[in-house]
């Protein structure tokens, strides 16, 4: 290597080396700040801001130092342009990352200020649902815009984009059909965020499954089933299909327990017993406690025990407790109220067997009945008729 080549190498290397060392130092300092801010993020606002900014800046500033160093070198202009282009894309992606983190930080702050771990959490669940859905949409939009701008910096891709715009009719139709699920879920997410047919922690019946809304993303909703299963449902499903929402305006609910009892059930005592059961159960919210006969059949009556509770979980347990305690009360206090199968056999009890004379009179009575019920007609033959028929009958022919 000649001295001139060596000098050219040194002229290129020392700015890059200084930029790399400076960028490495700045990166380590910023990452240390981010780790420290993470420990105090729950206490101080400036710590949360530092946590958001430090990580993207730890990668963006070294790229900026390298960009300055490359311009100070004696590399060919084409090389400098390509390196600057790559560093510019890296800086643009860092800005996109910063925007995503900033949106997530705002989301976490709103969620933290509106906790759902309270008794009356309807407003908090509404705000959290809107915040989470809009945050997901905004983060997706930020990533889409950042990647699109980065791709449009390439001349070839820019030319393809111009060509696509020129033939936007057919291409747009095909792209719209292909992207229908994506844009459908995006629009459905905005509809859910604005109209809020569902919210986080809502109790819903989806596909005949009882569960709670556990998570709402930009593409699907996760429903936590009562037996710890997870039902993943597309966002568009909640816009296009009917479903039950038990906590749409309030978590208060009414529930029933049905009993089939005997007709002799004293309903006054049943109502008093139900009132005592509700008053001694802390899950009853004090609104509704009613016992009614709602149906009857040939053997039993259907008694509906209607009670109320603060939420669906307590209501289910209260219904089970009411059913169990009412059955126990009836078993001990009114056993005749329990359903039973009746059979009434008609028979003469305590009567002695009939004597021979009584049997004869019974037979004569039977004959009299037979005589009175005999039909008159030519087919009746008396003894005189039989004798006349014998004398007038022709003799048999001679042999």
Please describe the structure with a list of short key phrases separated by commas or semicolons:
alpha+beta; 3 domains; about 60% helix; elongated
Can you walk through the features of this model?
There is one protein chain. The chain is of the alpha+beta class and 399 residues long. The chain folds into 3 domains: 9-113, no CATH class; 127-248, SH3 type barrels, CATH 2.30.30; 253-337, Alpha-Beta Plaits (2-Layer Sandwich), CATH 3.30.70. The protein has helices at residues 3-39, 45-71, 77-113, 122-152, 155-166, 168-178, 180-195, 235-240, 267-279, 312-333, 356-372, 383-391, and strands at 203-206, 209-216, 220-225, 230-234, 244-245, 253-261, 284-296, 301-309. The longest helix has 37 residues, at 3-39. The protein starts with a helix and ends in an 8-residue tail after the last helix.
Query: CATH fold name of the largest domain, please?
Result: SH3 type barrels
Average pLDDT number: 77
What is the chain-wise order of helices and strands?
HHHHHHHEEEEHEEHEEHHH
Query: Measured on Cα atoms, how large is the radius of gyration?
Result: 46 Å
State the oligomer.
Answer: single chain
Question: Sheet bearing the most strands, described?
Answer: 5 strands, antiparallel
Brief overview, please?
With 399 residues, this protein is an alpha+beta fold. The protein has three domains: 105 residues, no CATH class; 122 residues, SH3 type barrels; 85 residues, 2-Layer Sandwich (Alpha-Beta Plaits), CATH 3.30.70.100.
What topology emerges from the helices and strands here?
Layout: H1 3-39, H2 45-71, H3 77-113, H4 122-152, H5 155-166, H6 168-178, H7 180-195, E1 203-206, E2 209-216, E3 220-225, E4 230-234, H8 235-240, E5 244-245, E6 253-261, H9 267-279, E7 284-296, E8 301-309, H10 312-333, H11 356-372, H12 383-391
Antiparallel strand pairs: 1-2, 1-5, 2-3, 3-4, 6-8, 7-8
Helix pairs in contact: 1-2, 2-3, 3-4, 4-7, 5-6, 9-10
